[in-house]
Design brief:
The chain is an all-alpha fold and about 260 residues long. The chain has helices at about 1-30, 40-65, 75-90, 95-120, 125-145, 165-185, 185-195, 195-200, 205-235, 240-260; strands at about 150, 235. It is globular, with a radius of gyration of 20 Å.
Length: about 260
């Protein structure tokens, strides 16, 4: 146990080392030119917000990527979960904490649906996730009638951005991720499947529940990313990119019909 904890500390130190050294070099270069790198609190908020969003997105993407499942749908999960949470909270006058919970829960449910579709249709994950992404984006567009969601005037829902809140997201996100994948049976099964899928399945590890679980956790992480993005500006607007959809959707339908 001591050796394992020591290895975790070493990995965390290694991950933090490169960005900290880069930050120090940037700070020195800016100071040499007479420019202060982080002059206001807004600069620090921007830095930690970006760090939190990138960290959570990286975790969500790596979960399935390590198992050979490239998930295109994580961005659309963040979009639709934030649309759901923002719409509910603005309509019912709910506080920021409830919006956070709704975003994470709805993201987890959307991720679970994406994983269920993958294991049911048994198509390559890159095709399935692309189809799911198009469906989620279209659903978000339809729910808001193309206008997006706006709650700029709602001071409660836009009060989340702060250095301490983003630092808490980074710390708790990292600790929860480490706990799930280093100290639970789910994490042991996940690592076994990544190391050798056939051998792991032959030893009794259930691949399908683990895959759906990975999609669910990734969805919850992206729900948090969507929440961070939405509460930053108080708006969530986008434009559907029809050209790629027109090219990819027929391909998805063709592959589905051939498989059936």
């Amino acid at each position: 146990m001591k050796t394992k904890n020591r290895n975790i500390v070493k990995r965390i130190a290694g991950m933090a080392g490169i960005p900290l050294v880069t930050l120090l070099i940037m700070y020195m270069l800016c100071a040499a030119q007479g420019v202060k790198l982080f002059e206001t609190e807004a600069n620090w908020i921007l830095f930690f917000r970006a760090a939190a969003s990138v960290m959570l997105t990286t975790f969500a993407l790596s979960l399935n990527l390590n198992s050979g499942r490239f998930d295109f749908s994580i961005g659309s999960v963040a979009l639709l979960s934030s649309v759901i949470s923002a719409s509910i909270c603005t309509a019912m006058g709910l506080p920021t904490g409830i919006m956070l919970v709704i975003s994470i829960v709805s993201g987890a449910l959307l991720g679970m649906i994406s994983g269920a579709v993958y294991v049911i249709v048994k198509l390559p994950p890159i095709i399935v996730s692309l189809g799911v992404a198009l469906f989620y984006e279209g659903l978000a567009f339809a729910v808001t009638k193309g206008y997006g969601v706006s709650f700029v005037a709602n001071g409660e829902l836009t009060s989340f951005p702060s250095v301490i809140n983003y630092v808490l997201v980074i710390v708790f996100g990292l600790l929860i991720f480490i706990f799930i994948f280093d100290y639970t049976q789910f994490g042991y099964d996940y690592k076994a499947l990544v190391s050798g899928q056939k051998v792991a399945v032959n030893t009794g590890i259930k691949e399908i529940p683990n895959a759906v679980g990975c999609y669910t956790i990734a969805g919850a992480l992206m729900g948090m990313v969507g929440f961070i993005s939405a509460t930053n500006t108080g708006t969530y607007r986008w434009h559907l990119i029809l050209a790629p959809s027109e090219r990819c959707l027929p391909l998805f339908c063709q592959c589905l019909s051939e498989d059936l």
